[in-house]
Amino acid sequence: MDKAWQKFGLMIFGTISIALIFYGATLYQSQIKQKSLEDKIAYLEQEIESLRQKQIKILAEKTASDEEEETALALPQNSNSLSKNLGQRINQIKVLETESCPNLGSVAESQIPIEKATVEILGFGKFESELKNTDTAFTLLLRTAEINNFEVKYQNYEGLGAFITCLAKICSHDNYYWAFYYNGKYSQLGVSSQSIKNGDTITFKLESW
Length: 209
Hints:
alpha+beta, 8 strands, Ferric Hydroxamate Uptake Protein, Chain A, domain 1, rod-shaped, five-stranded mixed sheet
C-alpha cells in the first residue's frame, strides 16, 4: 500500500515537473519571440523616423526653392517701388541737410568766384560787369548798357558783325568813329568777334580817321 502511494506520488511529482519544464520552455520561447518582436518594432520605428526626417528635409528644400523663385519673380515688379522709396529717402536727406544747415547753399554759392570784366567809355564812364560763358565784347557792352541805363546804337554788317555808332547818346559823325580797344590795345577784331575773359577791359574811344 505504501509503495503504491509512493509510486503514485512519484508519478504526480514527475507529471508536475514535466508540466513545469514544458511551461518554462514555452514561456522562454514566448519571451524570445516577444523580444524579437520588440526589436523588429524598434527597427521599424527607426526606419519610419528616418523616412519622416527625409520627407521633412525634402519639403524644406522645396519650400526654400519656391520662395527664392517667387522672390526672383517679384523683384522686377518691385523695382519701381524700390526706386521710388530710394528717391523719397534722398529727398528726406536733402530736407534734413537744409534744415540743419539752411545757409549751406548760399554759403557754397558765395564761395564760387564771380568772373567780371570792365567796360570803359571815355568821356562817359567806367563799369564793371559780371561775365557769362559766351560773352563777346558786344554782348558785354549791351548788358552793361542795359544795367547802367545808357544807350547803344549799332549797325550790323554781314561778315563783319556790329559796328558801334552811338554810346550814351554820343554818336560818330563826320570822320569820327568809336574805336574799340581790348586790354589797352587797339583790337584787331570787331566787337562781335572779340571773346572776353575774367579781368579783361574793353574801351571805346571816339577817334577820327
